[in-house]
Amino acid sequence: MFVASIGNPSPAYANTLHSAGHTVLNLLRTWLVTPPFAKSRPHAGGLVSASQDYILWQSPSLMNVSGKPVAAAWRTFLSSLSSPEDKHAARLIVVHDELELPIGKIRVKSGGSARGHNGLKSVMGALPGGIDFTRVGIGIGRCTSRESKDVAAYVLRKMTTQELDAMEDVAGQAYSEWEHAMDYKNHKDRDSTGGI
Q1: Would you call 91 helix, strand, or coil by DSSP?
Q2: What are the helix (H) ranges across 112-160?
Q3: What does DSSP say about strands 46-50 and 38-40: parallel, antiparallel, or unpaired?
Q4: Using one digit for the tens of pLDDT, what is the confidence trace for 82-127?
Q5: Residues 5 and 22 sit within 8 Å (Cβ to Cβ)
Q6: Whether this model's pTM surpasses 0.85
Q7: Per-residue DSSP letters for the chain?
Q8: Helix, strand, or coil (residue 103)
Q9: Is there a contact between 138 and 21 (Cβ–Cβ < 8 Å)?
């Protein structure tokens, strides 16, 4: 399973609301006891933490141009798999911030539109057609103003201590939700190929 977070790069944007995906992936890495993140040139220069079951990857780019590095890292991951069965079973999960959800909530879905999220638009535009990836939206709430400059200031601010605490709970929720989503997908794959 390849789990990619998109956001803006650290250290300048560490723990900002717009980089909530990176924050949650950092927490998951600790929770899953995978190795520390390290830069990987083959994975588009992103930060990688790999275990037997997961590759956690953080995009090195700004949010709105996440697509090319995600696609390149995904290709590298697929090329590392030895059998056609492993390649078929490979799953891509993209973790991102979600303005339309309050802090502490998550949304897991596959397919559908980017709903105005520029990072997701970039990813969807860069991946080859037909790739069905799972999206994990991390709620960051919405500022009261709809003015673009106010929204930008809001998403680029650092999280408060309370918001960071909420992300701890979100990391556990995200893991449970995507495990459930992957189990469901694998079940559908087995059904569609005539497996048990």
Answers
A1: coil
A2: 118-126, 148-155
A3: antiparallel
A4: 999 999 889 999 999 999 999 999 998 888 888 879 999 999 999 9
A5: yes
A6: yes
A7: -EEEE-S--TTTTTTBGGGHHHHHHHHHHHHHTPPPPEEETTTTTEEEEE-SS-EEEE--S-GGG-HHHHHHHHHHHHHT--SHHHHHH--EEEEEEETTS-TT-EEEEESS--TT-HHHHHHHHHSPTT---EEEEEE----S---HHHHHHHHTSBPPHHHHHHHHHHHHHHHHHHHHHHHHHHHHHHHHTT--
A8: coil
A9: yes
- How many Å apart are CA 82 and CA 80, to the nearest integer? 6
Q: Which residue from 105, 100, 98, 146 is spatially nearest to 119, judged by alpha carbons?
A: 98
Give tens-digit pLDDT for 38-61.
999 999 999 999 988 889 999 999
Q: Give residue 138's identity as a one-letter amino acid code.
A: I
* Distance of alpha carbon 47 from alpha carbon 44, whole angstroms: 9
Instruction: Give the residue numbers annotated as catalytic, written as ranges.
Output: 18
Instruction: Tokens for 170, please give them.
Output: 């979100």
At 101, list the tokens: 């959800």
